Amino acid sequence: MATDKQKLGDFGEELIKKKFDCPKCKRTKTLKKLPPNFKCADIICDFCGYLAQVKTKTVTDIEKFPSKILGAAWQPQKDRMDAGIYFPLFVVLKNKNKHSVFYLSSDLQTEAMFIKRKPLSSSAKRAGWQGYYFDGTLLEKFISRLI
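Now predict its structure.
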């Protein structure tokens, strides 16, 4: 059974898949969800191979970009940044009945936008695991609203 956070993430990925054409090849109905826990990407175009991350956050005001957005595992993201690889980012803001969608291309991303979190404590279920979050105050300067 999916958790509320997983359901929220699924909502965002389904929304992007259904509402948007591939930003790279412009084909319709080619965006597909990647398997859960695929590292650093959530969506792929099954025609051109375009990859993107989708982050979904529950907010009270879909017009106001949040100061923080949870990312995923730090080490795979750090390894890609060290190699100069960034994936485009869709951010879905959702409240009860409304949503907004923002987009940040990979060429506008910088390492400063990714903030490493503290590792989970030794008593945690996944002790030592380390995630990151996006600095929304930096993203906000470059991100574009789509809907």
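The domain at 4-145 is CATH 3.40.210.30 (PvuII Endonuclease; Chain A).
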